Amino acid sequence: MNTVKTVKELRAAVARARSEGKRIGFVPTMGNLHSGHAALVTKAAQRVDFVVASIFVNPLQFGPAEDLDKYPRTLAADQEKLVQAGCHLLFAPTVEEMYPDGMGVQTRVSVPHLSEGLCGASRPGHFEGVATVVSKLFNMVQPDLAVFGQKDYQQLAVIRALVRDLNMPIQIIGEPTVRAEDGLALSSRNGYLTTEQRATAPALYRSMQQVAKAIEGGERDYERLLGEAREQITAAGFKTDYFEIRHGINLRPATAEDRDVVIIAAAYIGSTRLIDNLHLNLDA
Ligand code: PAF
Fold this sequence. Notes:
Bound molecules: pantoate
CATH topology of the largest domain: Rossmann fold
Helix content: 25-40%
Structural class: alpha/beta
Radius of gyration: 19 Å
Shape: globular
CATH architecture of the largest domain: 3-Layer(aba) Sandwich
Number of helices: 10
Distance between the termini: 41 Å
CATH class of the largest domain: Alpha Beta
Number of strands: 9
Strand order of the largest sheet: 1-4-3-2-5-6
Largest sheet: 6 strands, parallel
């Protein structure tokens, strides 16, 4: 696997692969890779001949009080994991390479409605930062397909919308969340948890599973279900940011008639913010 740091080198390497008739897959990441990321690369490697990954901790998607500076940077370990998962090329640019004129004058991509509410409410500007950097990366790599984790459910919805709305010829694949044995969704942020917090963390997904079971059993009083779930995770030691049942595609509050729904939540343990979701197709 080759690692390149400039857009020029990236374009040259991708052009070489294309000239050999290879189809290009892309997995954008912020590094500190775990087996959830490896699953994205493996999925891409099953579908295409040449897999490009990127590692870029994108300042544009972090709020002023967020963890940009303490976000773990683990390039050597990440490179090893990427090789094992079947990646062919790593793009690891600097902030200056991505935003040569500075972030203040950077053209922004914003996806209305889907970016508002849920994580968008507590992280203003976050999805604009994500949509902007993903659009830039897509234009740099020009992949045939790109793979994202379903754990970031709202992010995936935003990216699907931007690709559709800006007519980008890129197939977007959502890959199921990889979980620890006790159900906790793998996340780079799990590394911030103390032993005690780590033991509490699976309670979030357990509450979601209980809500899912009730919905699958025919319960449609979503406000009651949500009230109970919020109480449960508060009692477990979380501070809830949101815990909602939404329509699985447009993310509007779910109605009793919706068949495609997602239970979606963000909650803090101490200062660490965890997100998770559970998607239900009630026709299946
Ligand atoms: O999900 C992430 O790691 C990031 O939001 C992404 C998609 C790489 C954009 O910076």
